[in-house]
Amino acid sequence: IQPVARFELQKAAPAGDGKPRDGATVYAKVCQACHATGAAGAPKTGDKGAWAPRIAKGSVELVKSVVNGKGAMPPKGGGADLTEDEIKAAVEHLLGLSK
Fold this sequence. Notes:
Mean pLDDT: 90
Number of helices: 4
Strand content: under 5%
Number of strands: 0
Shape: elongated
Order of helices and strands: HHHH
């Protein structure tokens, strides 16, 4: 008797070339969907009034919010494969666009 099927679990291959993505790339692929439109209450990119209190908290707190999720934003902003360095780069990029 031969088995009908075989099932094997493997670790997913890293996206792209395996190199860390810069902040602009992460923003464009993960963050922009909500922050460009204000979807689900996300502060819109470039809205200085909405970002001022967040900027005052500092980037360390903002990175923590992204890693853990906040409000309607899921952990890692929905980019489950993001590293903490990529998240930091995306936060700095978004802050640069919103100052």
